[in-house]
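User: Could you check the structure of this?
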Amino acid sequence: MLVVLIFVFFNAYQLNIDNQQNLKSKNILGLITVVFSVFYMGMRPISWKYFGDMSTYAATFEKYALGEKVTAEKDIYFEYFMMYCSKLMNVETFFIVCSALYIVPMYIFSKIRFKEYWFYSFFVLIISASFWAYGVNGIRNGIATSIFLLAISTDKKIITVLLFLISVSFHKSMMLPIAAYLLNWFYSDTKFYLKVWLLSIPVSLVLGGFWENVFKSIGFFEDDRLNTYFDEADAEVMSQFSNVGFRWDFLLYSLAGIYAGWYFIIKKGYEDKLYKYIFNTYVIANAFWILVIRASFSNRFAYLSWFLIGVVTLYPLLKLKFFNDQHQRVAKILLATFSFTYLMYFLTGAR
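Assistant: Sure, the predicted structure tokens are below.
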């Protein structure tokens, strides 16, 4: 991806973004990147040491292959999907299929919404900080967010709702971004949601632990896995995620998306209903995460907004001309996105 980024970055200083030569080369490069990403991610070795929950998925798959029935009560659609796959393929092929289900919807969303500029949208999604982890570790969560992107690829509400239901059945944590998105159908005042986001910061600083207990007590986190994220007494979990507390570094990362949406919608007066819905969804989901930011593995809650951050930052620039050097600005956003990903993975060890 660094090699691709270097090519894209320097190319941006040679050709305008709407230049046909640029668009043709990006289309070819994009298709190669899609195929490469699917197989590179999908053909990784099965390993708990390097890929976390992947070994658990593999063990469950093998049980289904031996004839065990589905007994899980959570994320039931994914469990049946895994069981049916176990009858048709081996576990190695299954992970390639999962990789395709994770990555191809990003391509479809980008292709439908940005047409000839689709490469830039797809590329910013796969170089985002959370992309790799949710393709190799939090697999069902990653697929669920990609189904969400697929749902907002269409303007037909009935299809959107059906895909939302499938997304939730893959991972029920998707109830949060889906509820946030559907809320826009009834109330979509971006200024109001931005005020809520700003208010969530001091509220979390003062009453952070209170909100975590409230959400647990009302049963919002009935899933045992989610409850584990809140259990700060679990030494084993804590050892895997040492930086627990108010995550200012994660908040600054989130701020990039907040600033981008504010700049285009509020300052520039950019009007696009879908972009407004996507940005508002990002703001609402991110405000929720801020309230529970001290929880162990709070990055997993942040992912419920972060999977949209690439789209939030680039969307307007792929739809309307704002600057004379727009191609260069797009390239700089891609460089900043990749640089943050590099920083998080190789300097801080975040995952």
